[in-house]
Write a structure and sequence with these properties.
With 208 residues, the protein is of the alpha/beta class. The protein is built from five helices and eleven strands, in the order ββαβββββαβαββαβα. The chain has a single domain (12-207), classed as Alpha/Beta hydrolase fold, catalytic domain (Rossmann fold, 3-Layer(aba) Sandwich), CATH 3.40.50.1820.
Length: 208
């Protein structure tokens, strides 16, 4: 059964889980997608997990995003702060509404780039994260305590949007904050490939 609840702050979809031991997934889409985009991916990577998939509130040339940017790779950091707080409130309310334990955030591109700030701002809301094509274009210190939080970061070796060193910096800083980080560079560009799905599926089988 699929539910769309307009009472919560974000347009979103919630699909109840059918396997109780699987952690829910918080699906965070990339630029130009919506709350439907990552549902099939979530179902494939973690069959039976509850899915919570909000739509980003910001529009860039008509395309939904989770926060504004000045140009590619240059975040509007004040807007990111405000939007991260909004998303945190949504996740908190949605967990209470749908009786969800702390989910694993699964984000692609723009969605991954709000997933790690969400984990930094409100570590208690998430049990882990899968960050696909994420970047860290600024130093986020001071760091929170992410001790024991499992995180998978998937970078593309030929990604024209996310420099590999920024993905590596994200992995290093999350590790410095105490997260249990797995960092993989796949032979791919910005789009997802079978390598990504294989690695994410195996990681979720262990941590999800």
């Amino acid at each position: 059964m699929t539910q769309t609840a307009s009472a919560l702050d974000f347009i979103h979809r919630h699909i109840p889980g059918s396997v109780a031991e699987r952690k829910p997934l918080l699906l965070l889409h990339g630029t130009g997608a919506d709350e439907n985009d990552l549902i099939p991916l979530g179902q494939r990577l973690s069959p039976g997990a509850a899915l919570l998939s909000p739509r980003g509130k910001v529009l860039e040339n008509g395309m939904p995003r989770f926060f504004r940017r000045f140009e590619e790779g240059v975040f509007d950091r004040e807007d990111l702060r405000v939007r991260t707080s909004e998303l945190a409130n949504f996740v908190h309310e949605a967990r209470a509404t749908y009786s969800l334990p702390a989910p694993i955030a699964l984000g692609f591109s723009n969605g991954a780039n709000i997933a790690w700030p969400l984990m930094f701002a409100r570590p208690e809301l998430l049990s882990g994260a899968v960050l696909m094509r994420a970047m860290m274009p600024f130093d986020p210190r001071p760091l929170p305590d992410l001790s024991g939080k499992p995180v998978l970061i998937l970078a593309g070796a030929q990604d024209p949007i996310v420099p590999e060193e920024q993905a590596g910096m994200l992995a290093a800083i999350m590790g410095e904050a105490g997260a249990d980080v797995t960092y993989e560079v796949v032979p791919a560009g910005h789009g997802l490939t079978g390598y990504d799905l294989q690695l994410a599926g195996a990681w979720l089988a262990r941590h999800g």
